[in-house]
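Box 3.1. Reading complex inputs
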Amino acid sequence: MIRTTSPVTGRSDATGAAMTAPGTTLLAIGTKKGLWLASSPDRGTWTLSEPKFLMEEIPSVGIDTRGGHTRLFAGRMSWHFGPCIAHSDDLGETWTEPQEGSLRFGPDEGVALERVWQIQPDAESRPGVVWAGCQPISVWKSTDHGETFELNRGLWDHPHRSEWGAGFGGAAAHTVLPSPADDTLHVAMSTGGVYRSDDGGASWQPRNKGISAYFMPDPDPEFGQCVHKVARDAVDPDRLFAQNHHGVYTSSDRGDSWQSIADGLPADFGFVMLTHPHRSGTAWVIPLKADGERIPPEGRLQVHRTDDGGASWDASDTGLPRAEYNAVLRDAACVDTAETPGVYFGTRGGTVYASADEGRTFREVARNLPDVLSVRAAVVPTVVPA
Amino acid sequence: MTATNPATNPATNPATNPVTVLIPTLLRPYVDGRSEVSMDLPGRRDVCSLLDSLGEGRPLLEQRIREETGALRRYVNIYVDGEDVRRLDGLGTAVPAGATVMIVQSVAGG
């Protein structure tokens, strides 16, 4: 049994037990072999749970805190028994998978779900809506808080679909970005590039002008770019940031055009792109040296931050190891939504770091885990073991 | 010569000689923790119909064994009386009355 207190008031429960903590930061860590949950009262000291779903990859995690209720999601992938989405309404104590499965292709599609790459709760204004990005390249929408998902036919039936390719990890829609302002929706896929819908997902258009695809005969195709991650500006929803397979870009016009912001970075390759949850123009990347090395440049793991929309970058490695030869994958990094947001990431070497000061300094949360594939963090009601 | 009625022959009558399905540890939560399930198979008697019957009322078990296309998952193996169905007729492999059908995850993974 668990009891919870309000993250806002910290008031006690019905028993009157003294529980005054203002809230707990929960960090969900999906790895190549299981899920861990780390919790912290101050984002400085962390307690790590026992693993869940051992023998399963967890390529995606989600934390939905809308409406004062916390639901955790885990995109699970068993190499033996296939993929699924499970959710937990008790902060990870127990997990539920709908009896009919939350997300399955129908007989008309003639394919099978391979992996859930992204679980993205929509804006506060659309309660109950949760998006999923999957392999094979597909986007799914839930309107019942992530219990069941429906295939987005607009993207699935897109005439470009047969020409989309597969990155090393598989052909997937790995990023789904609903706009809080209107019915705009962006999807990023490897390899296919960025697509935008202006009508809530009914129709989609490629939006890759200015993003290079050096690995293709035509380096400036309409689509086919290998975008690794896209993030939306919190204040200006028309503004986007993208980390590509070589190339770091921004767009101020909803993706109609992209401009390079790679100057000032030690490498233009990487997988991570994060934006500030409250401030415009602030973003973080974690560069890697490519194509020949795929490690942090010179073996120095650094988080680079811009506060001016990519015009300049500042590096931070305080609290990070002097030598690190593991990559950080696209969803193995996140921010929380605290007033002074925390920044989190994990490496393929199984070390997880947290920053409570917007990425200026980091502390180790966990080490020696399996390859970290996904992390998400949120302030949740304080858990008090009964 | 006297013809034997399969329905009255104990060796071939599914009512008296059901199929035994061995369930791997990781899938036992879907069958109330049992290690084996005894099943009668009326009508068509192949692996596909056995899985259909096994999955009735147990959709999550069905999803663990077969993809939504109906294909056996790549790293799930099924043996009928010790023979790998992939070396026989796949999901169309016949399941004799009284057979032992073993479902097992393959020895894959690190």
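In summary: The interface with chain B takes residues 55, 78-82, 84, 97, 99-101, 104-107, 110-113 of chain A (CB under 8 Å).
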